[in-house]
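Thread: Newbie trying to understand structure tokens

Hi all, I'm a second-year student working on a class project, and my supervisor (Dr. K.) asked me to get a predicted structure for one chain before our next meeting. I've only ever worked with sequences, so writing a 3D structure as a token string is new to me. If someone could post the tokens and maybe explain what I'm looking at, I'd be very grateful. Here's the chain:
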Amino acid sequence: MRRIPPASSLAFPALVAIAGIAAWSLEAKPERAGDSLLRGMSFSTPGTPAILAAPVHPDSVGVLLERHRERGVPGIDVEDYLLYLPPGIERGEEKWPLVLWLHGRSLRGRDLNLLKRYGPPALIARGIRLPFVVVAPQLPPDRSWYDLGPVADIVDHVVATYPVDPERVYLLGYSMGGGGAYRMAFDYGDRFAAMIAIAGHTPEPTPDHVRAVERFPFLAIHGAQDARVPLAPARRMAQALEEDGAPQFEFRLMPGMDHGRLERLTRDESLYAWLLAHRRADPAFAR
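---
Reply by user tm_fold:
Sure, no problem. This is what the structure looks like when written as tokens:
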């Protein structure tokens, strides 16, 4: 495990900027509508032909699309999600990365507009053109990211329907969604190239959890002043992975950061660049 020291030696300049992340955040450096969040970086797969299972209408790209599954199916907790298709995907010439976004407790409900409060959907709602597909499911009230089978089904459906590169499927989760990242790593980790858990509810580090998390690049970020989600379990997980010699796990402790301020990291372009730099390594998992 790579333990990243606090303060100025952090690899992400944005994470240690003035006031936490202000220097690189979209809050401090707003983009014009239609700008690309990660300018000058190409994340599609040149030279890799893609055949669309269903044509993508140009009006469907660059915007948040509401998707609803059949209501009332036993065992299906997640019925609604937002889908974002990046401009250029409609040509069907290349394969694109996909980021699965798992939100925190406060965004649960039956109103997909809630998801626009923070995270990738908030960036898209502000006119930011992200260079990857986004899948953002919404938990119903009083549910948690525990049974993730329906979420995995949504991801599989999007990968099968659109020109998505199955070797570049990623997960970003915050708070309760950060806990969902650990659960997804445990149950469906073979689908992902890398994951980030921000202020996540961290499970106790059983041998099975350690083996699941150490299979691929996993970045856990926690605030030293987080009074809402305990830091101790995250420390124990990091310690267990360090003792197990997990080179792909990184634990970043953010001095002076509380739970709410860590949400702002979802606006940080270097966070997405970290995800997109990875590719699923084991060809046996390719579909």
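A couple of things are worth pointing out once you decode it. Residues 2-35, 39-48, 283-287 have pLDDT under 50 and may be disordered. Helices lie at 120-125, 149-161, 176-188, 207-213, 232-243, 259-262, 269-276. Feel free to ask follow-ups in this thread.
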